[in-house]
Amino acid sequence: MRYGEGLLEEIRRRTDLVALVGRRVKLVRKGRVMWGCCPFHAEKSPSFKVENERRLYKCFGCGKGGDAFKWLTETEGLSFPEAVEKLAAEVGVELPKWSPEDEEREQKKKSLYDIVELAAKFYEAQLFEPGGREARDYLKGRGLDGAAAKQFRLGYAPSGNNALIQHLTAQNVTQADIIAAGLARSADDGRPMRDFFYNRVMFPIGDGRSRIVAFGARALEADAKPKYINTGETSLFSKGLQLYNFATARAAAIKPGTIIVAEGYMDVIALVRAGFAHAVAPLGTALTEDQLHLLWRTAPEPILAFDGDAAGLKAAHRAAHLALPHLKAGYSLRFVFLPDGEDPDSFIAHHGAGAMSVQLETALPLSQLLWRTETEGKDLATPERRAGLEHNLKEIVDRITDSKVADYYRRGFDQLVFENFKRRAPTPSRGSARPAARQMGKFRGDFKPPRPLPGSPEAVSSSVQGSALVRGGQAGVRAAKEMELGRLLVESPEIALAEAESLAVLDLQDPSLDRLRHELLNLAASGSSLEKAGVQTHFTRKGMAELLARFAGHPVEDPHASFQRAVSDLRELAGHPTDARRLLERRKALSDRPNDGRGNI
Question: Residue 458: which of 471, 469, 472 has the closest Cα?
Answer without folding.
Answer: 469
